[in-house]
Amino acid sequence: MRLDIDAVSVALGGRPVLHEVDLTVHPGQFTALVGPNGSGKSTLLRAVYRARRPDAGAVRLDGRDLWAMPAAEAARHTGVLMQEQHTGFEFTVAETVALGRTPHLGLFDRFTRADRAAVDEAVERTGLTPYRDRRVGELSGGERQRVLLARALAQQPRLLVLDEPTNHLDIRHQLDILELVRDLGITVLAALHSLDLAACYADTVAVLRAGRLVGHGRPEEVLTPTAIAEVFDVDATVHHDGGATRFALRPRCVCPEQLCHWSCRTRRAAALTETTDVR
Ligand SMILES: Nc1ncnc2c1ncn2[C@@H]1O[C@H](COP(=O)(O)OP(=O)(O)OP(=O)(O)O)[C@@H](O)[C@H]1O
Asked: Where do the coiled-coil regions begin and end (predicted)?
């Protein structure tokens, strides 16, 4: 499924948060959305999974206006894993994952064999088979995160929208989840804080800064030391090692001696105290 974000603008609390953002994710492509805290990533994702209507511009799925289609249809197309998502703690894992089938069921429809198969497959793929009868409230944060991903997968969406899907996960499960998501072969738009993971798993990386899209392209084209320094205010060295890209990042240094950031801060504080003392 093709996702087109056309000149989307959003204001929150009377303040512009997104400024005419244009972004296309081609069918089957995995696009990572990166940017500093508060740059508008979650707000953009909310416009894509119909939680916040854009004030201007449009979101299209295969050319159709997402905000003009019936809510149930939009829900069938789009699987979502958001930050701080609520789950009913009293439900079991299998019951929670089964909720992913809701957009496919009519009011009086019963669960079919196909629905059950979709749930079983989602539980299996996320490594949750040993947990299927456990209550969600008894799970760790990382296990719960996998349950939410399984619920989104059970929905068999054509577009997956993920807001920091690796939150709470240990390194092994971060890799497992992104590998799984990449191998689904469906269209994915995922906000990620880790540039390493974005470079490793995404086909393209879109960079937001202060609500504007300032770059979009293949990871190696977009995540350059200059761009990273400008957007994230850190000094970056990028190593391409075989197929993998690694980033060595450190806070940007502003002192003439090029000492590290903390030293700079210490020095500036010391300098300030000295000045104050002199006065
Ligand atoms: N309901 C709201 N009312 C007013 N401002 C809001 C509201 N929600 C978010 N904002 C502001 O909008 C901006 C963008 O927030 P958003 O959550 O989209 O950023 P983000 O890039 O996802 O950040 P993070 O990396 O910290 O999750 C922030 O400055 C935030 O304070």
From this structure: none
